Every structure is written in structure tokens, then in C-alpha cells.
Amino acid sequence: MSIFEYNGSALVAMVGKNCFAIASDRRLGVQLQTVATDFQRVFKIHDRLYIGLSGLATDAQTMHQKLVFRHKLYQLREERDMKPQTFASLVSALLYEKRFGPYFCQPVIAGLGDNDEPFICTMDCLGAKELAKDFVVSGTASESLYGACESMYKPDMEPEELFETVSQALLSSIDRDCLSGWGGYVLIVTPTEVQEKILKGRMD
């Protein structure tokens, strides 16, 4: 078994019209044994920028603390929030400098940049970025997430439709993956507000 599959995870970020959604499952497992059903995989960096960390749960928590620390230093020095593109480069550099003993994480970054332009990207555990204009996925359920998102995605969705699309894609995908599941956690971020929703899924 790959170390990336040890805890199980499902992450997806999707772009709408001047908004984005980032969603994850809520299961923390040790291989096939479920340990917790309310595990947090999506973290806030600032009001318009979020990161999801799939992979080994302990590395995800360590990485989150390091990224919050580096972002606070940036805020103190620059007196402004970091742009999503800049933050993606920071995450990539942090992963690459540990390439000989990497964090077993595959991040998904989603944010609103200049002119409320949504930005999403994912990367592997060594920091190789993969940018997208529609959606990015990560985790043990990524294969079924790709299929669900490709069939459901439409450009320029409004926040309500985006929520419906990303929720259905997530729920149908985690049903096909025994290492992720136990409901979902969805964030819809627009220029004016952040909507946070918990999804109930199959509890087995």
C-alpha cells in the first residue's frame, strides 16, 4: 500500500463565475479502519485563499502549520495578504526543499486573485505544479473524481449551481472509494462571502 493511501482522502476544487468551491471528505482512517469522521483537510490561509491537503494526515497537519507561519511572516513584512499564485509558489518551494525526505501530501490550492479571478492548482509531493482552468482533484478517490467532474463541470457556474455540482461529484466519487467517505465538507468562496456546508453521505 502506498503511504499516500494510508489515511485515505478525497479533495476537489472547482471554478465558477468569479467564485470557486473546494471540498473534501471527512474520514480519517488507518487503512480500512475508520478512526474519525470529522477530519479537517481544507484549511483557511486568508478570506480569499484556501488549501486542501490530501495524503498522510500527520504530514498534512505539519504542513498546514508551516504554511500559516510563513503566510503570517509575509503579512507582517508586506502588510497585505498573499496572492494565490504567490502562495502556490511558496507551497511548491516548501515541498521541493524537502524532496529527499518529502511530506507525503498532495495539496490543492484555491483562491481569488486580482479582479476576483479564481485560481486553482494542485501539485505532487515534490512541488510540481499543475494549473487548471476548470477543476483539480487529489487523494485516493481522484480517479472517480476526474470522471465525475469531467461529466458534470460547466464553465461560468453561479455559486448555487457550483455547490450542487461539486457536492454531487464528491459524493458519487467517495461512494466508489473505500478509503474516503463519511460525508463531505464544502466551501463556496465568492468576493463577498464564504459559505461553509457539511454534506451527509453514506456512513459505511
Question: How would you describe this protein?
Answer:
The structure is a single chain. The protein is α+β, with helices and mostly antiparallel strands and 204 residues long. It has a single domain, classed as Aminohydrolase, N-terminal nucleophile (Ntn) domain (Glutamine Phosphoribosylpyrophosphate, subunit 1, domain 1, 4-Layer Sandwich). Helix content is 30%, strand content 32%. The protein has 4 helices and 12 strands; from the N terminus they run ββββββααββββααββ. It has helices at 57-78, 84-96, 142-152, 159-174, and strands spanning 10-15, 20-25, 28-30, 33-36, 42-46, 49-55, 105-112, 118-123, 129-132, 135-139, 184-189, 194-199. The chain has a 5-stranded antiparallel β-sheet, with helices on one face. It has a 5-stranded antiparallel β-sheet with strand order 5-6-7-8-9, covered by helices on one side. Strand 8 (118-123) and strand 9 (129-132) form a beta hairpin. Helix 3 runs antiparallel to helix 4. The longest helix has 22 residues, at 57-78. The mean pLDDT is 92. Its main location: cytoplasm. One of its GO terms (biological process) is proteasome-mediated ubiquitin-dependent protein catabolic process. It is found in: Cytoplasm; Nucleus. Keywords: Cytoplasm, Nucleus, Proteasome. This is Proteasome subunit beta.
